[in-house]
Specification:
2 strands
Length: about 160
Protein backbone atom coordinates (compact mmCIF):
# COMPACT_ATOMS: atom_id res chain seq x y z
CA UNK A 1 0.00 0.00 0.00
CA UNK A 2 1.32 3.44 -0.92
CA UNK A 3 1.60 6.29 1.55
CA UNK A 4 -1.10 8.25 -0.31
CA UNK A 5 -3.59 5.39 0.00
CA UNK A 6 -2.70 4.83 3.64
CA UNK A 7 -3.16 8.55 4.37
CA UNK A 8 -6.50 8.84 2.52
CA UNK A 9 -9.40 9.64 4.82
CA UNK A 10 -12.16 7.13 5.35
CA UNK A 11 -14.89 7.51 2.70
CA UNK A 12 -18.42 8.52 3.70
CA UNK A 13 -19.70 5.13 2.43
CA UNK A 14 -22.06 6.70 -0.11
CA UNK A 15 -23.25 4.87 -3.21
CA UNK A 16 -21.94 1.53 -4.42
CA UNK A 17 -19.38 0.37 -6.95
CA UNK A 18 -20.67 0.46 -10.53
CA UNK A 19 -21.25 -2.92 -12.14
CA UNK A 20 -19.44 -3.84 -15.37
CA UNK A 21 -22.78 -3.48 -17.21
CA UNK A 22 -23.33 0.01 -15.83
CA UNK A 23 -19.82 1.02 -16.84
CA UNK A 24 -20.29 -0.43 -20.34
CA UNK A 25 -23.55 1.51 -20.76
CA UNK A 26 -21.65 4.76 -20.16
CA UNK A 27 -18.70 3.82 -22.38
CA UNK A 28 -20.08 5.39 -25.56
CA UNK A 29 -17.08 7.35 -26.86
CA UNK A 30 -16.76 7.60 -30.63
CA UNK A 31 -13.39 8.62 -32.04
CA UNK A 32 -12.48 10.41 -35.30
CA UNK A 33 -11.45 7.14 -36.98
CA UNK A 34 -14.85 5.60 -36.18
CA UNK A 35 -13.71 3.45 -33.27
CA UNK A 36 -16.65 3.09 -30.91
CA UNK A 37 -19.39 3.56 -33.52
CA UNK A 38 -22.28 1.21 -32.79
CA UNK A 39 -24.22 -0.93 -35.27
CA UNK A 40 -27.00 0.95 -37.00
CA UNK A 41 -27.73 2.99 -40.11
CA UNK A 42 -29.67 5.94 -41.40
CA UNK A 43 -30.12 8.32 -44.32
CA UNK A 44 -30.89 12.02 -44.57
CA UNK A 45 -34.36 11.17 -45.90
CA UNK A 46 -35.06 9.30 -42.65
CA UNK A 47 -33.27 11.93 -40.57
CA UNK A 48 -35.39 14.85 -41.79
CA UNK A 49 -38.53 13.44 -40.16
CA UNK A 50 -36.69 12.86 -36.88
CA UNK A 51 -35.09 16.32 -37.03
CA UNK A 52 -38.48 17.95 -37.68
CA UNK A 53 -40.00 16.12 -34.73
CA UNK A 54 -37.15 16.32 -32.18
CA UNK A 55 -34.76 19.12 -33.19
CA UNK A 56 -36.48 21.86 -35.18
CA UNK A 57 -37.97 23.56 -32.10
CA UNK A 58 -34.46 24.55 -30.95
CA UNK A 59 -32.40 24.57 -34.15
CA UNK A 60 -34.99 25.88 -36.63
CA UNK A 61 -36.02 24.52 -40.02
CA UNK A 62 -33.07 23.02 -41.89
CA UNK A 63 -30.87 23.82 -38.88
CA UNK A 64 -31.19 27.61 -39.15
CA UNK A 65 -33.08 30.27 -37.25
CA UNK A 66 -33.76 28.57 -33.95
CA UNK A 67 -32.81 29.63 -30.44
CA UNK A 68 -29.96 27.09 -30.29
CA UNK A 69 -26.80 27.16 -32.37
CA UNK A 70 -27.21 27.07 -36.13
CA UNK A 71 -26.29 23.75 -37.69
CA UNK A 72 -26.19 24.88 -41.33
CA UNK A 73 -25.90 28.05 -43.27
CA UNK A 74 -22.60 28.14 -45.08
CA UNK A 75 -21.12 31.20 -43.42
CA UNK A 76 -17.40 31.77 -43.08
CA UNK A 77 -14.95 31.08 -40.27
CA UNK A 78 -12.69 33.97 -41.29
CA UNK A 79 -14.98 36.98 -40.80
CA UNK A 80 -15.54 39.06 -37.69
CA UNK A 81 -18.32 36.68 -36.58
CA UNK A 82 -17.16 33.13 -37.41
CA UNK A 83 -19.98 30.77 -38.36
CA UNK A 84 -19.21 27.53 -36.50
CA UNK A 85 -21.91 25.34 -38.00
CA UNK A 86 -21.58 21.69 -38.99
CA UNK A 87 -20.48 22.41 -42.55
CA UNK A 88 -17.92 25.11 -41.81
CA UNK A 89 -16.40 24.11 -38.48
CA UNK A 90 -16.71 20.46 -37.43
CA UNK A 91 -13.65 18.44 -38.49
CA UNK A 92 -15.12 14.90 -38.26
CA UNK A 93 -18.55 13.48 -39.01
CA UNK A 94 -17.97 10.93 -36.23
CA UNK A 95 -17.71 13.76 -33.69
CA UNK A 96 -21.10 15.02 -34.83
CA UNK A 97 -22.56 11.53 -34.30
CA UNK A 98 -20.97 11.32 -30.84
CA UNK A 99 -22.35 14.71 -29.78
CA UNK A 100 -25.88 14.00 -31.01
CA UNK A 101 -25.86 10.55 -29.42
CA UNK A 102 -24.83 11.68 -25.96
CA UNK A 103 -26.39 15.16 -25.77
CA UNK A 104 -29.51 15.46 -27.90
CA UNK A 105 -32.30 16.26 -27.77
CA UNK A 106 -31.61 18.71 -24.99
CA UNK A 107 -34.70 17.73 -23.01
CA UNK A 108 -34.01 13.98 -23.36
CA UNK A 109 -30.33 13.19 -23.95
CA UNK A 110 -29.53 9.64 -25.08
CA UNK A 111 -33.18 9.00 -25.98
CA UNK A 112 -32.54 8.52 -29.71
CA UNK A 113 -31.91 5.02 -31.03
CA UNK A 114 -28.63 4.32 -32.84
CA UNK A 115 -30.49 4.31 -36.18
CA UNK A 116 -32.07 7.68 -35.35
CA UNK A 117 -28.67 9.17 -34.50
CA UNK A 118 -27.20 7.92 -37.78
CA UNK A 119 -30.22 9.36 -39.64
CA UNK A 120 -30.05 12.79 -37.96
CA UNK A 121 -26.29 12.87 -38.56
CA UNK A 122 -26.90 12.06 -42.24
CA UNK A 123 -29.54 14.81 -42.43
CA UNK A 124 -27.20 17.42 -40.96
CA UNK A 125 -24.43 16.36 -43.33
CA UNK A 126 -26.90 16.59 -46.23
CA UNK A 127 -28.25 20.08 -45.44
CA UNK A 128 -24.63 21.22 -45.32
CA UNK A 129 -24.01 19.82 -48.81
CA UNK A 130 -21.62 17.10 -47.63
CA UNK A 131 -23.55 13.89 -48.46
CA UNK A 132 -26.42 12.94 -50.76
CA UNK A 133 -29.84 12.57 -49.13
CA UNK A 134 -29.87 8.85 -49.96
CA UNK A 135 -26.35 8.10 -48.70
CA UNK A 136 -26.50 5.59 -45.86
CA UNK A 137 -24.48 6.51 -42.80
CA UNK A 138 -23.28 3.61 -40.68
CA UNK A 139 -20.13 2.51 -38.82
CA UNK A 140 -18.35 1.90 -42.13
CA UNK A 141 -19.41 4.95 -44.13
CA UNK A 142 -19.48 7.70 -41.50
CA UNK A 143 -15.72 7.72 -40.76
CA UNK A 144 -15.04 8.06 -44.50
CA UNK A 145 -16.97 11.34 -44.77
CA UNK A 146 -14.45 14.12 -45.33
CA UNK A 147 -15.64 17.29 -43.64
CA UNK A 148 -14.79 20.63 -45.30
CA UNK A 149 -12.79 21.81 -42.28
CA UNK A 150 -11.00 18.54 -41.55
CA UNK A 151 -7.57 20.16 -41.98
CA UNK A 152 -8.53 23.45 -40.34
CA UNK A 153 -7.35 22.59 -36.83
CA UNK A 154 -3.87 22.85 -35.34
CA UNK A 155 -2.52 19.92 -33.34
CA UNK A 156 -2.05 20.91 -29.71
CA UNK A 157 0.12 18.03 -28.60
CA UNK A 158 3.62 17.96 -30.13
CA UNK A 159 4.36 14.86 -32.19
CA UNK A 160 0.69 13.94 -32.55
CA UNK A 161 -0.30 13.08 -36.09
CA UNK A 162 -3.55 14.46 -37.48
CA UNK A 163 -6.12 11.79 -38.46
Amino acid sequence: MTAAVAAAPESPKLGRPASPGEIAAQDINVFPDGAGLPPGKGTALEGKAIFDMKCVSCHGPKGMGGSAGELAGGGSLTGPHPDKNVGTYWPYATTLFDFIRRSMPLDAPRSLSEDQVYAVTAYLLHINGIVDERAEMNAGTLPRVVMPNRDGFVQVWPGEKAE
